């Protein structure tokens, strides 16, 4: 769907100087008694690819729709390229949007779908046709230019939708879970293509997804959302390796919760003291859990070990073991070439290779 309708002149498919910087400042949005956005703030640099990641109901789609102009805010500001656009209509915001549902016109060919936004901008037919041809070639669909949506696969339809959004040369590209309706292979291929195009064209891009693999593999930074607020905004590697909250640690990647007791310089974990990650002063004084990544857990056979293997999952190069120990289940990754040493029921000793661990208040019921 094209959101801008004023007249423009097409330009070659080359990177612009930069995309537009975007600032979402203290956004609040209510739907009845539900607060979909609760003071949500995010700064996006020109040309940056940012993913909004979180579970259903966390506010990520509402934030995108507010940025697009499809939803108003009860409080806060939307600033694009230094200008506040909070009260500007969607069609005046110079943004392109790609939806999960493709939203193609069924009575138009792929070429005409891509050119539709340019027609609204009153470009000549020859210009529209040339521009549509360039975009379809860019997304690998030039040979399908004359086909109608029902003659295209889901992945091809989504490529047409992407080309249509790019045709108007938006300074901000908005992607609302555009891959979730596709099968795994097509999703992976289109994921790589979207990222490649975004980098080539240097368009500021906001991508909404509940799929952590998509977010971590595509984005420059990921904003993890919960209850209408940003839990953490960081690069994919920092988000995974250094989650700032228990919610982020458990939502992004795989973590195991293990009961620990406070020690002078850290916590007691599997018989040794491990440092606490982050601000020690912020750790609550009650019962605590440590959150462990599978790759930070080491396992070795021991006939009298305190743990035992309860589940084994082959993951290719690695095999994931689930270890029952001290009333908890701990996940540990070992090389698949070493996995033959472990069978269901094997007694093991567990240790931690990480130099520090994220500690949080013990979950109720544990």
Strand order of the largest sheet: 1-7-8-9-4-10-11
> How far do the termini sit from each other?
49 Å
- How many distinct beta strands? 21
Q: What is the string of helix and strand elements?
A: EEEEHEEEHHHEHEHEEHHEEEEEEEEEE
Shape: globular
Our estimate of the beta-strand percent is: 35-45%
Please give the radius of gyration in angstroms: 25 Å
Contiguous uncertain segments of 5+ residues: 1-17
Please state the structural category.
alpha+beta
User: Mind summarizing the main beta sheet?
Assistant: 7 strands, mixed
Count helical runs: 8
Roughly how much helix do the residues carry, as a percent range?
Answer: 10-25%
**Overall average residue pLDDT:** 89
Instruction: Give me the oligomer status.
Output: single chain
Summarize the structure.
The chain contains 8 helices and 21 strands. The chain has helices at 60-68, 110-120, 125-138, 154-167, 184-201, 212-218, 236-241, 246-251; strands spanning 2-4, 22-31, 34-44, 49-53, 75-80, 83-84, 92-99, 172-176, 204-209, 221-226, 229-234, 256-262, 267-269, 272-276, 288-292, 297-301, 307-314, 318-325, 328-335, 347-352, 356-361.
Could you characterize what this model shows?
A hairpin with a 2-residue loop joins strand 5 (75-80) and strand 6 (83-84). The protein is globular and about 80 Å long. 23% of the residues lie in helices and 35% in strands. The chain has helices at 60-68, 110-120, 125-138, 154-167, 184-201, 212-218, 236-241, 246-251, and strands at 2-4, 22-31, 34-44, 49-53, 75-80, 83-84, 92-99, 172-176, 204-209, 221-226, 229-234, 256-262, 267-269, 272-276, 288-292, 297-301, 307-314, 318-325, 328-335, 347-352, 356-361. It is α+β, with helices and mostly antiparallel strands. Helix 2 (110-120) packs across helix 3, helix 2 (110-120) packs parallel to helix 4 and helix 3 packs across helix 4. A 7-stranded mixed β-sheet has the order 1-7-8-9-4-10-11, sandwiched between helices. Strands 12-13-14-21-15 form a 5-stranded mixed β-barrel. The protein has 8 helices and 21 strands.
């Amino acid at each position: 769907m094209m959101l801008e309708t004023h007249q423009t002149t097409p330009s070659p498919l080359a990177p612009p100087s930069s995309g537009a910087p975007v600032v979402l400042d203290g956004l609040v949005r209510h739907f009845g008694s539900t607060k979909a956005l609760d003071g949500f703030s995010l700064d996006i640099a020109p040309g940056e690819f940012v993913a909004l990641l979180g579970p259903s109901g966390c506010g990520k789609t509402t934030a995108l729709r507010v940025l697009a102009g499809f939803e108003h805010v009860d409080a806060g500001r939307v600033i694009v390229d230094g200008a506040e656009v909070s009260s500007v209509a969607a069609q005046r915001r110079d943004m392109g949007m790609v939806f999960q549902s493709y939203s193609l016109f069924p009575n138009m060919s792929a070429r005409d779908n891509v050119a539709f936004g340019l027609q609204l901008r009153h470009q000549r037919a020859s210009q529209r046709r040339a521009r549509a041809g360039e975009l379809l070639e860019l997304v690998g669909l030039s040979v399908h230019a004359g086909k109608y949506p029902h003659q295209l696969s889901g992945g091809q339809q989504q490529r047409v939708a992407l080309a249509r959004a790019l045709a108007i040369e938006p300074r901000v590209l908005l992607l609302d879970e555009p891959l979730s309706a596709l099968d795994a292979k097509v999703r992976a291929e289109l994921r790589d293509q979207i990222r490649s195009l975004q980098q080539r064209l240097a368009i500021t891009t906001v991508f909404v997804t509940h799929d952590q693999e998509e977010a971590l593999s595509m984005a420059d930074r990921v904003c993890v959302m919960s209850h209408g607020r940003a839990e953490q905004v960081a690069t994919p590697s920092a988000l995974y390796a250094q989650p700032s909250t228990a919610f982020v640690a458990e939502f992004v990647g795989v973590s195991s919760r293990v009961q620990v007791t406070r020690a002078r310089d850290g916590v007691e974990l599997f018989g040794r003291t491990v440092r606490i990650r982050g601000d020690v002063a912020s750790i609550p004084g009650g019962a605590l859990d440590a959150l462990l990544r599978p790759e930070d857990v080491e396992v070795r056979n021991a006939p009298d070990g305190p743990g035992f293997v309860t589940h084994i999952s082959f993951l290719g190069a690695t095999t994931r073991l689930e270890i029952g120990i001290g009333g908890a289940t701990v996940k540990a990754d070992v090389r698949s070439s070493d996995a033959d040493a472990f069978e269901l029921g094997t007694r093991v000793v567990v240790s931690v290779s990480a130099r520090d661990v994220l500690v949080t208040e013990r979950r109720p019921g544990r």
